[in-house]
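Help wanted!
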Amino acid sequence: MGVLKEFWHRLGSPRWFYAISGPWAVAFGLLAAALLLVGCVWGLGFAPPDYQQGNSFRIIYVHVPTAIVAQSAYMVMGAAGLILLVWRMKLADMALACIVPFGMSMTALALFTGAVWGKPTWGAWWVWDARTTSMLVLLFLYIGLYALRQAIPREETASRACAVLAVVGMINIPIIKYSVDWWLTLHQPATFTLTEPPSMPPEMWLPLALNVVGVYCLFAANLLGRLRVEILRRESGTSWVQQLVRSNPA
Amino acid sequence: MGFSAQFRRELRVMARTSADAVNPLVFLFLGLTLFALGAGTDPATLGAFAPGIIWVLVLLATMLSLESMFRRDFDDGTLEQLLLLAQPGFVAVLAKIAAQWCFSGLAMTVLVPLAGLILYLPASAIPIMMLTLLVGSPALSLLGAVGAALTVGLKRGGVLLGLLVLPLYVPILIFGVGAVSEYMAGVDVAAQIYWLLAITMLAFTVSPFAVLAALKISVEE
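Answered by r_m:
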């Protein structure tokens, strides 16, 4: 407990976070590259074709990981928003700003790959089924956050406004998901659940698992990288950043 | 100021600036007319789509009425004083939301028979349509107030407000339209009504605090 508490307090210091996060960003980046490379090559090239869908099913190796991480990213953002509102932690403020572009692009990618898969499988680029619809709403939620930040000139105000919106959105997402499920469902049930053994053979789901873990590593690497840049930008007036810049001339 | 004093003040202000209160209702009927013109006037088709059309227009009209919710008080500084004075702050916020609801959600609920009439909504479905609006529309005002509070300090908040608020309205739309459509198909709809009530109760517990936080952020700007 003590270690966690100390870590929590230290997170309040962007300078400390900048100092320790460099190696982590690189490690997550390398891990993500390795996992995604193996997962994609294995999944797209060597996994056996599906007995019904043939080769078109292979898009799940991109579709499922991006869709999962897009939703997780919003939840992380909601948590960051709550931390910002309660403890006014600078790092949470920066995280809130840094997650939006990643989450938005992952949601868009999930929707796009879903459409590509839908054409041969369902015979239409777009079908109003439960999960495509809730991903579309998620995309609108991301766009709303992005637009709100753009609209408010002062950075600190913008962050806190976005934090309120992210928290309200986080509470709403499960309700939206449930309501859309209720509304209509054509989609096959979730490919992965933690509680049941997968129905696919291992040579089909292993690459998928690698890609899911890989895309989470990518999320971590992306977030850490963006955070580091954001820290330098926002703290550019402080002496430690200026010292850092002076000691590392470009 | 307590809840009732604040609530009466809001109602009085609303009644005296009647354009802000009436325009969204006019918009509702204008929208219904445009839908009828665009979708054709075949009674069977229009009647089948009527629950969806009415609900969507209620969402949009509510969104329009949200714009003016805090605007006037923000511009003349009343809002700042209110946030300083009101103890506890969320009571004043609730009073404002309640007053806004009286002129949007409640007024639209009362007008539903008329809206249903011109869209050929079967007469038997009108009571259930009113019921869904009555239990669902408070959530529209409560959630919408968060968006209104976040954008009140911005010069051009209108489109942004829609972008922030409409995605949050998705569950209310789904259960509201679902209840009426399934009632028309002869299915029991208690579940959807309970869901609407649950969403309203959740919004009632969470959103006054979110609105208060958002107003403080906007006022500090």
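OP: Thanks! One thing I noticed: Chain A has one domain: 19-247.
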